[in-house]
């Protein structure tokens, strides 16, 4: 962080309130000034002292504390971002109706900064027509309402309505601060297929050929598109234990062949394909059923592993669309990790790859030590099939994802692809 931001964390009265403590810690450790504004019912689940210790700021629920400072107006006016987590069905309803009967709802009325709601409630409440209408109203007014996760709820119940993990909420909160504006909800009804992470090509039961991809950029793409309203399926290779994005269907695979099969299965239903996975170019011609043993003789020759090419999944998808096999597909996005060489620089090789692959957009990263792979920040270029080129500014991979999704949205709006 280069600039300290003022963030209000609103906490409504639900069992998921305990997760807000982790959120407050993460936002504080990121360098922000955080003030927690809970509801009275939230304090039945977690005490004010916890939030005061984590944020370093006082915690109040009513408008009658420190009246001389006019907190019910000032807190919202001075905020750079308001995050409400958890946002219960009751809190969403009160926000929609413009209530100001406690400090949190008054803050929501006076805030002119981005507002992020992270809902948490039982599945029946989330899908109730009243809640559906309230969420739509808040989004129409410019607020960002996250899609909840699916999983274990209170008691034995399970389903949609689980609060996303604190890391996911803080990631999206930081994205709003980086963008400087709200995240549009503009992809409703769009079906997206995203691939992420590296593939592993087995040599024997112990060893494999892999790469340095962490999957962070692909996960960021899936996360941003889901929160902009898309129906997202994520095909995930080796992703180093990343948290599956909320509101996303995740299919886990291992090898390039498995990824190719998964893309072939899901691509016909998709409007957008984002090939962010680092797919191996080669695999062993034969996979040994037993571990290859190291000889006790130090002069013995090392085993030779013969390689064969893997399928080019991105080029195959472009061909399938051209042949009419993907009638719904309107945008195909490729990723290229490049280095310069004696023949040309990164962009020289990227332009050649875009022409060779035939995709609509190509995201280009220059790779090297602490660049592109296994890091949280990224930069690069976005090349379009029509010849347009733009730089992707340095920032979080989530910010880069949002800029790429802006470009995808422009293609969809133009009817291209």
Automatic annotation (TrEMBL):
Which residues does the annotation say bind CTP? 281, 291, 335, 353, 357
The Swiss-Prot or TrEMBL record lists the needed cofactor(s) as:
Mg(2+); FMN
Pfam families referenced in this protein's UniProt entry, alphabetically = DFP, Flavoprotein
Q: Which UniProt keywords apply?
A: Decarboxylase, Flavoprotein, FMN, Ligase, Lyase, Magnesium, Metal-binding, Multifunctional enzyme
**What InterPro entries does the record point to?**
CoaB-like_sf, CoaBC, DNA/pantothenate-metab_flavo_C, Flavin_trans-like, Flavoprotein
Q: Which GO terms describe its cellular component?
A: phosphopantothenoylcysteine decarboxylase complex
* Pathway linked to the protein: Cofactor biosynthesis; coenzyme A biosynthesis; CoA from (R)-pantothenate: step 2/5; Cofactor biosynthesis; coenzyme A biosynthesis; CoA from (R)-pantothenate: step 3/5
Q: Which domain of life is it from?
A: Bacteria
Enzyme Commission number(s) from the entry: 4.1.1.36, 6.3.2.5
> Which intervals hold domain DNA/pantothenate metabolism flavoprotein C-terminal?
187-409
**What family does this chain come from, according to its entry?**
In the N-terminal section; belongs to the HFCD (homo-oligomeric flavin containing Cys decarboxylase) superfamily.
Q: What does this protein do?
A: Catalyzes two sequential steps in the biosynthesis of coenzyme A. In the first step cysteine is conjugated to 4'-phosphopantothenate to form 4-phosphopantothenoylcysteine. In the second step the latter compound is decarboxylated to form 4'-phosphopantotheine.
Q: State what protein this is by name.
A: Coenzyme A biosynthesis bifunctional protein CoaBC
